[in-house]
Amino acid sequence: MPTNRRKVLAIALVLVFAASHDAQAQDVQRVDVREAGLVGHFYAASGASGRTGVLMLGGSEGGYPDEAAARDLARAGYPVLALAYFRDRGGDPPELEQKQLRKVPLEYIFKALDWLEARPEVRADRIALMGESRGAELALMIGSLRPDVAGVIAYSPQELRWGAVGGGDAAWTLHGTPLPYAEGVYNRATPMSQFTDILDGPADVHNAAAIEVEHVHGPVLLISSRADALSPSARMANDIEARLRANGFSYRVENVQYENASHLLMGFGPAPNPEDYTRR
């Protein structure tokens, strides 16, 4: 399995978002976003106009999402806002007020969507959310709350709202109120039990923290590995799919699973077109 996360994730993203135009022929411009409290990088090919856009969200590592991946998406014709929503362990980006994945206000992500929808490079009704791990949790959650989101692509998805990194508090707030969450107890001998104890536990705890994915107004693509050693993402992807189908979800759902990829999905797979993962 390759070990260069940035390089392999970038290639995987290009495969997943394969476009009909020549990905190598377009120069990409990066704009540093520092507007209305937002901190991010916006990538778009020269001359892009009215294209399907992507709001990219990283996971529990914090900081900016992967730059090489964002550039490759932009080269393929998909403008990207790579949003930082809390600082990484090194404290970057320092101008971002949110220092950790703890009580992150969802209004910040809403503001990023509004910003992206207003860009001339982007078609406002064709924006997909894409996130990995905790970023996938966030993407599914935002997609369930914002009907203007046209699709969600979730790498190593999470079906529940989990607690803050470090524990003891909510990870997310809405209108200043901490959202209900689930939090297991970490055991070094059985690390997966911090998730499975909750997933197999009392229904009221599970239901309170569950993301209402059936409220997403567009297709959902779930990508996970059955060999994920950090979270039972394949099991949760199956649960998400089951919830969608049980609620009569009318958009396309795909649940792509690999046998031997890592939690960060360092591997290669099929190449669906991103146009298929936003509503028509």
Characterization of this structure:
The protein has 280 residues and is α/β, with parallel strands linked by helices. The chain has a single domain (5-176, 212-277), classed as Rossmann fold (3-Layer(aba) Sandwich). The chain has seven helices and eleven strands. The strands form two sheets. The protein has an eight-stranded mixed sheet with strand order 1-2-4-3-6-7-10-11. Helix 1 packs parallel to helix 2. The termini are far apart.
List keywords for this structure.
280 residues, alpha/beta, Rossmann fold, eight-stranded mixed beta sheet, 7 helices, 11 strands
- CATH topology assignment: Rossmann fold
In one word, what is the shape? globular
Q: Structural class from helices and strands? A: alpha/beta
CATH superfamily: Alpha/Beta hydrolase fold, catalytic domain
What is the count of helical runs? Answer: 7
Number of strands: 11
Average per-residue pLDDT, rounded, comes to 87
Could you give the topology of this structure?
Elements: H1 5-16, E1 28-33, E2 40-45, E3 51-57, H2 67-75, E4 80-83, E5 104-105, H3 106-117, E6 122-132, H4 134-145, E7 151-155, E8 172-174, E9 177-178, H5 193-199, H6 203-209, E10 220-225, H7 233-246, E11 253-258
Parallel strand pairs: 3-4, 3-6, 5-8, 6-7, 7-10, 10-11
Antiparallel strand pairs: 1-2, 2-4, 8-9
